Amino acid sequence: MRKKIVAGNWKMNENLQEGIILAKEINTVLEADKPNCGVVICTPFIHLASVAQVLNKSLVSLGAENCADKEKGAYTGEISAAMVKSTGAEYVILGHSERRQYYNETPEILKEKVRLALDNGLKVIFCCGETLEEREAEKQNAIVKAELENSVFNLSSTDWENIILAYEPIWAIGTGKTATSDQAEEMLAYIRSIVAEKYGREAADDTTILYGGSCNPGNAAELFSKPDIDGGLIGGASLKTSDFKAIIDAWKK
Ligand code: PEP
Questions:
Q1: How far apart are CA 126 and CA 118, in angstroms?
Q2: 41, part of any domain
Q3: Which atom of ligand 1 is nearest to the CA of 93?
């Protein structure tokens, strides 16, 4: 059966000391009141090794927000998948729209990143989603399908077991504008159907698919009540322990 997951994406927030405090807080509240879903926090690279020391791994897993598209060598400033893994991180977010948009990450680059992440034993949270213009032109299904076909549908069935998908409509990220639970469910059911076409029904039923985009304590339970929504990728609300915990607790309703 597929895993329910709530994953935080800290983005470029919190200095090292603040990040350690936040991670400790999240760990403490989850130790006091155990989650009934998987919890992941994805932090900036510089936090990973320190945050790994303060997390109870049986309750909270650690992830990075990116990794390089090269294995190793003369790529000044880059962080490889192997380096990420060596910190104790288990996950990496790839394909986030902010990386595609601001850092020109193409489908080909993402394909390389996914390959290297998997080869180094990381699980990939792979993001996809359309812009507002694309949704208004009713192109959202075609856009999402192309994003998956061009970067992850080349993977073997064995590799697929380490892929988590996150549908994040770009118009809903950090805007306070959430997709309705029906819109999110419609897209996640569509994504599951194309995963089934590619990898078979059983693999599709086992694939964790998250919704992301202004998910908060007020809308999480409604979103998570939908049959194809297996949890959330949480940006802004993952920076406040009480909000992140409330979203995790939405799985208890
Ligand atoms: C994200 O960027 O992954 C995200 C979902 O952000 P927010 O929750 O802030 O919309």
A1: 12
A2: yes
A3: 3
pLDDT, residue 207, reads 98
Is 235 annotated as contributing to ligand binding? yes
- The Å distance, Cα 30 to ligand 1 centre, comes to 21
**Has residue 98 been placed in a domain?**
yes
Degrees, nearest 5: CA angle 59-43-77: 145
Residues involved in catalysis = 96, 168
The pLDDT, as a whole number, for residue 10 is 98
223 lines ligand 1 (CB under 6 A): no
The amino acid at residue 95 is G
Cβ neighbours around 109 below 10 Å, total: 18
Domain count, the chain: 1
CATH number (domain holding residue 194):
3.20.20.70
Which of ligand 1's atoms lies nearest the C-alpha of 97? Answer: 2
Counting DSSP H helices and E strands in the chain, the numbers are 12, 8
What residues make up the domain containing 50?
5-234
Residue 113 counted as domain residue: yes
In this prediction, residue 30 carries a pLDDT of 98
Task: With 0.70 as the threshold, say if the pTM is over it.
Answer: yes
Mean pLDDT (the chain) is 97
Whole-number pLDDT of residue 188: 98
Low-confidence residues in the chain, pLDDT < 50? none
pLDDT of res. 178: 84
